[in-house]
Amino acid sequence: MAGGESQAQAPLSDRELQVIELVAAGLTNQEIAEKLEISKRTVDNHISNILTKTETENRVALVRWALQWGKVCLDDVNCCPLPHVRNQPMS
Predict the structure, then answer these.
(1) Phi-psi map region of 78: left, alpha, beta (phi>0 left; psi -120 to 50 alpha)
(2) pLDDT by residue (tens digit) across 1-15?
(3) What whole-number percentage of the chain has pLDDT above 70?
(4) Degrees (nearest 5) of the Cα angle 33, 53, 78?
(5) How many Cα atoms occupy the beta-carbon half-sphere of 78 within 13 Å?
(6) CA nearest 60: which of 8, 30, 20?
(7) Nearest CA-CA partner of 68 in 20, 18, 13, 4
(8) Cβ neighbours around 76 below 10 Å, total
(9) What is the spatial distance between Cα 47 and Cα 50, in angstroms, rounded to a whole number?
(10) CA–CA distance, 82 with 80 (Å, rounded to integer)
(11) Most distant CA pair in the chain: distance in Å?
(12) Are 25 and 71 spatial neighbours (Cβ–Cβ below 8 Å)?
């Protein structure tokens, strides 16, 4: 879909979210493989599946998608922690 109208066709796995974070951090597929202790081919497959699920065409578009949907936080950009809600007695 144009303009990233849908978040994703299929849910992303925890591993795919890890890969997205590492792509956003600027790591190459080989560096991601070493960090996650998996093969580069497995990373290549994860990236391919992620691009399909997010309907993005490349790594740059993927990082833009991840920022738009709050999947990554880069250098305190796009970091929106939820406020801490304290249990307060009702008056």
Answers:
(1) left
(2) 444 445 446 899 999
(3) 70
(4) 75
(5) 15
(6) 20
(7) 4
(8) 6
(9) 5
(10) 6
(11) 60
(12) no
- Kindly state the tokens that stand for 91: 């008056």
Which residue's entry shows tokens 């990233």?
Answer: 4
User: Which residues share a beta bridge with 77?
Assistant: 74
As given in the structure block, the two tokens for residue 51 are 């691009």
Q: How many residues does the chain have?
A: 91
Token pair of 37, please?
Answer: 């202790």
Q: How far is CA 87 from CA 2, 82, 90, in A?
A: 43, 15, 9
**Angle in degrees, CA 12, 15, 37, rounded to 5:** 160
CA 75/CA 84 separation, integer angstroms: 22
Structure tokens at 3: 């303009």
